[in-house]
Structures are given as C-alpha cells and as structure tokens.
Design goal:
Rossmann fold, 7-stranded parallel sheet
Length: about 375
C-alpha cells in the first residue's frame, strides 16, 4: 500500500465477529495515526460496541444488516448465534454488497481492506478505481494450509474427502504437523455454506485472486517460513502486520467483579494459577463441560475458569464449586482476559487455541 507521501482514504470492512473487529480496529488506528482517513464499515449494533475515543480521522459507517429468514432480527454477529445459524449471517453479510458498493462509489476511498468473507468486493472495487487488500486475522500457517487460490476455488481439487484435510499438504516445504483432526472436518457446515453453496476455501481463493496485496496478522519472528511460502502460493505481496497485540485496558476501580477476582489472584503465589478459557464462541456440550470440570478438579491446581455465555445456566456440575472452594474461581460470561493473563499469579493458559487468544497469551509471556 505504498502511495508515497499521499494521505489515503481507506475503507475497512471486517466480518461480523468480535475476533475480527478488534484486529481491524487496531489496523485502522495505526493508519489514522499515520495521517490517513479511515472509514470503518459495519452494522449499527457492532459499531456501538467498538472502543470510544477513537482518533478523529476514523469514521464509523453504519450499514443496516439485511434481514434473512432464519436469522434472528437482533443478531448482527457470530457471538449472538449458535453455530448452525451462522450461514444465515453469511447470507445477510453478502447482501450488504449493494450498500458497500454505493458507499465506495460516493466517496473518495483509495483502498478497501476487507475480510475473508467478502469475495465479491475486489471486483466491485476495481470497477470504481479502488484498490483492494485482504487482511487475514488468521495466522500465515493457517493460510498456507489452504493452498494456492486455484485449489481453494476448486474445492474438489483441494480435498476430495475429509481425511484429505487431516494430513500436511504436499505444497508445504517446511517441517510442520499442522493439519485438521478428523472430528474438526466431519461437520460439513464448517466448510460449506448451504445458503450460498460456497465454501470458506472458495471465498478466500476468490478474494486473494482479486486483491492487490494480502496482509496477515503475523510476524517474521514467529512465522518466517509460512510467510515466505505464502508469497509463492498467492503470487502477490504478502505483508505481515505484526501480531497487533491489543491494548490492555485496565478495569475501572468500580468494576466489582474484576476487583473480587484481582483480590483472589493477589493472594496466590506467582505463576501458580491455571487460567481456563475457551473463547467467546466455543460451545461445549454438557458432557465436555463435565469432563473439563473433572480434569480441572483432579489437577489440584489453583485455577480461574471462565465459563462462556453459550454454556448456559446450570452447566457447571452440581457440587463442583463447593468442592473447589478457595482453590478455584469460576467466572461466568465475558471476562477481562488481558487483565487475567497479565496478572503475575497466572502461570498457565488452557485455551481453545484461537489465534487471538494465542496472541494475547504470547503478549503476556504465557506460552
């Protein structure tokens, strides 16, 4: 995105998920501090959740989410939906195309930075004289596993069976064991959107083909070989943005829940506490929650367990909290993860290994 000393107007269009909004906002803030104007495009409900006190050169552009049969009227992000209804959100997201194109046509945008879902945007932007960049909030290693755009688009060439995705692809030229496990690919909904009959692989492939550059939330110190290979696979510039560690916004003194947890952590020895959190969108079965509770209890370690909102009331096994009283702290709902990871008493992190959580753990030295 080298336009010399010219100050640019950049539009940003993330996928409708919290784990995507925040990295996009970090990039938007970086660009704004460099003197560029940014138009951050999303739906009203999602924009209301973004941080206040944004740089004045970041404008929030609200586009109402089209209504789709099967999608709850109030839902505007993946955090509000069970996994099975996310395809309806994808359909609604695709239906934002006319509104996004109209905004670009009526503005002086130079570049649009988009997420992996909006495969249709690069071609539309090019017709308006706007350049396109694909910003991946996923690791370079994940993108390499997907392969070159030609294979991503023609899914039958990429993988004929679920088992094909459980081995390291032949184009990977460096030592790695990164591949899917069979249970992760047995659910077709993870890869094929029944509403559009288009897989996530194909969306990414078409997007890469249409963009001038690809930016990845990665760094050479951590993923030098995947980043190098990705340039060859994609046949276009691949720019690492760095890990984009989120700013650690400390809880206000009046936040009683955090104050209580902090006092509990303050009483524990340094690096003695296991932090258990499986992300905001992971929905464990009751059986899995009980197994996890059993393992945490038998570990004998002091712990903080964040039970997501998706688990629902009564998901913790009866008697668990009384049996671990004093040794464990159970937090239900959204938790200040950065504050918890930063506390000196936390020494380990049991996580679902989402890239955002991995980055937050790396940023606090919890590896």
């Amino acid at each position: 995105m080298d336009d010399g000393e010219k100050k640019l107007h950049v539009a940003m269009f993330p996928w409708l998920a919290y784990g995507h909004f925040m990295p996009f906002l970090e990039v938007a803030t970086f660009l704004a501090r460099k003197g560029h104007r940014v138009s951050f495009i999303s739906t009203p409900k999602n924009l209301q959740k973004l941080l206040v006190n944004l740089p004045p050169s970041i404008a929030l552009v609200e586009l109402p989410l089209p209504r789709v049969h099967g999608l709850p009227d109030s839902a505007e992000s993946t955090t509000e939906l069970p996994h099975t209804t996310v395809p309806y959100l994808k359909k609604a997201y695709d239906m934002l195309e006319p509104a996004v194109v109209e905004f670009l046509a009526n503005s002086d945008v130079d570049w649009v930075i988009q997420d992996f879902m909006s495969f249709w945007l690069p071609q539309k932007a090019r017709g308006l004289g706007v350049k396109s960049a694909f910003f991946s909030v996923y690791s370079a290693t994940s993108l390499v596993f997907g392969g070159p755009p030609s294979l991503l688009i023609h899914g039958q060439d990429r993988a004929k069976t679920a088992e094909d995705l459980t081995v390291v692809p032949e184009w990977v030229t460096y030592p790695t064991k990164v591949a899917f496990r069979l249970h992760e690919v047995m659910n077709e909904e993870d890869f094929l959107d029944s509403e559009s009959n288009m897989s996530v692989f194909e969306r990414v492939g078409r997007l890469v083909q249409g963009c001038e550059i690809v930016a990845v939330r990665a760094c050479n110190e951590f993923e030098a070989e995947p980043l190098s290979l990705l340039k060859k696979l994609y046949g276009r510039p691949v720019v690492p943005t760095g890990l984009l560690l989120p700013q650690n916004k400390r809880r206000r003194e009046g936040d009683e829940r955090w104050s209580e947890l902090k006092r509990w952590l303050d009483d524990r020895e340094e690096k003695s506490v296991l932090y258990v959190a499986l992300g905001t969108e992971v929905a464990l079965s009751p059986e899995s929650i009980h197994e996890l509770a059993c393992g945490v209890e038998k570990s004998g370690l002091p712990f903080v367990w964040v039970v997501g909102r998706r688990a629902g009331p009564g998901s913790i096994p009866p008697g668990f909290e009384s049996r671990v009283s004093g040794r464990g702290f159970v937090w239900v709902g959204w938790a200040p993860q950065l504050d918890i990871l930063a506390h000196p008493s936390v020494g380990g992190f049991l996580t679902h290994c989402g890239w955002s959580s991995a980055i937050e753990a790396l940023g606090q030295g919890r590896v």
